[in-house]
Amino acid sequence: MEPFLEPYNYYFLREQTQMLAQTHRSVNDRSTIQAVRSLAFDAIKEELSHLTQEELAAVMAIEKITDSQREVDQYLATLRTFVRPFKQPSEAGVKKAFAKTKKIQMPDWEQIDLKDYSFYAWNDMGQQSKFILYYQNNKLQGLQGNLSSEIKKGICTICHGTSGVSLFTVKGKVNKDGQYKTKGNYICYNSDECNHQLQTKEHFETFIEQIKAK
Ligand SMILES: [Zn+2]
């Protein structure tokens, strides 16, 4: 089977898997376990309704999960083989995506497991910046914004998880007084963790749409 899961699908399924195993370990009442299971399976089928029958059948091996950690590990290892990695951009592609920026720290792609990333982002605190690479309609896009070095606990606008977040601001349009409008969002300071918490494409897309609308 060709890879058919996006990294965020994998992290969604990983959370469901861990939640199911935890339920089996901590709950005695069979009907409660049954209710939790069927809710999870319905959520999975809805989230992954675009898959083929064969692909969905492979994912639904999650129904075998009980309290065993070995089963969890095996299932997740199998899922991982179905993940489509973030497409590695060329150096020219990255430069083009950040055309306004002269100094770009190129990611060392060889050291990065691209199956972890729905988008790829890194901080360059020398420039007080976060650089975000993502694909829109298969085209590589870049978003650079100012990143505060002050980290606090909060909800991230991208992944909707609770983590160490920092204010990320992007220069918007020029207003009547000739000044740039800037608006900020609190997002995960660490974008690796952000990717691990991102479970649907919609959250990331909404973040991008909001920024572009500014
Ligand atoms: Zn995040």
Specify the number of helices: 7
Total number of distinct structural domains:
2
Major sheet, described briefly? 6 strands, antiparallel
Question: Average pLDDT, to the nearest integer?
Answer: 95
How many beta strands in the DSSP annotation?
A: 6
Name the quaternary structure. single chain
Description:
The protein is α+β, with helices and mostly antiparallel strands and 214 residues long. The chain folds into two domains: 7-81, Monooxygenase; 91-213, no CATH class. The chain is built from seven helices and six strands; from the N terminus they run αααααββββββαα. It has helices at residues 7-26, 30-47, 53-59, 69-81, 91-97, 191-197, 201-213; strands at 120-124, 129-136, 139-147, 152-155, 162-174, 180-188. Strands 1, 2, 3, 4, 5 and 6 form a six-stranded antiparallel β-sheet that branches. A hairpin with a 6-residue loop joins strand 4 (152-155) and strand 5 (162-174). Helix 1 packs antiparallel against helix 2 (30-47) and helix 1 runs antiparallel to helix 4 (69-81). The longest helix has 20 residues, at 7-26. It is elongated and about 65 Å long. The structure holds zinc ion (ZN). Zinc ion (ZN) binds next to strand 6 and helix 6.
